[in-house]
Design goal:
about 230 residues, alpha/beta, Rossmann fold, 5-stranded parallel β-sheet, 8 helices, 5 strands, about 35% helix
């Protein structure tokens, strides 16, 4: 049996990143998880990330603070209203106000540094090009460009290491992601996706993220374990 294959998993505590973690573990990787406190209004997701890491048996879960409120520019980091009640056509038009400038580039760069410290060359991210197609940093082209940069910007890269950013959910819709997660034993009741939760952590049920999450559970034929502020059946 060869040496353990270590991987860095960007773990927000949401549905996508939790499924990506389960996928990496199913591939036999020893996972180190990384949560980023970037000043997001939905900071409750950080508690979910810690719970997910513990439940999935991760022994190395890190929290890094990079306060992006200093630059703002997003409904998640500035005093800008989170859109509510939008239909899928509206969500697919343009770059949404919930886009955080350069967030994925920033997160992957931190994950890359973490990878160098533990000798990992695999980075795992839950990016998805089907949902929120307006996010420029969720596209395969961005991922490949980041891999090229990683080869040039790191000691490991110039010494011959090849970094790979795995995005196993890239071409799946939410229902497909949920089906994959269920097959891998994911407990979605401990995940959090809402962009504008109540003070006690209940999902608003109306933001884009809640809408897509609820739709995914319906289409997957899986009971939605989300705790919504509005308790009506979804």
């Amino acid at each position: 049996m060869g040496p353990a294959r270590h991987a860095i998993v960007l773990l927000s505590g949401g549905l996508d990143s939790t499924t990506a973690l389960a996928w990496a573990q199913s591939e036999g990787m020893t996972c180190h998880t990384l949560a980023i406190d970037y000043g997001q209004r939905h900071r409750v997701e950080l508690d979910s990330a810690a719970r997910v890491a513990a439940m999935r048996g991760v022994t190395d879960h890190r929290l890094v603070r990079v306060d992006l409120r200093a630059i703002g520019g997003s409904a998640l980091t500035a005093d800008v209203a989170v859109p509510k009640g939008r239909d899928e056509a509206a969500m697919a038009t343009g770059v949404p106000v919930t886009y955080v400038p350069a967030r994925n580039a920033t997160f992957l760069s931190i994950a890359l540094g973490f990878a160098e410290t533990v000798g990992a060359t695999d980075l795992i991210a839950g990016m998805n090009v089907l949902d929120y197609s307006g996010y420029p940093d969720c596209r395969p082209e961005f991922v490949r460009a980041f891999e090229a940069m990683a080869a040039l910007a790191t000691q490991a890269g110039v010494e011959g290491a090849r970094f790979t950013v795995h995005t196993p959910l890239m071409r799946l819709d939410k229902a497909g992601i949920i089906r994959l997660g269920v097959s891998l034993g994911v407990d979605y009741s401990i995940t959090h996706s809402c962009y504008d939760p109540t003070p006690d952590g209940l999902a608003c049920g109306a933001c884009d993220s809640c809408t897509l999450r609820a739709k995914g559970f319906r289409e997957a034929g899986v009971a939605d374990p989300t705790r919504y502020a509005d308790s009506r059946d979804r």
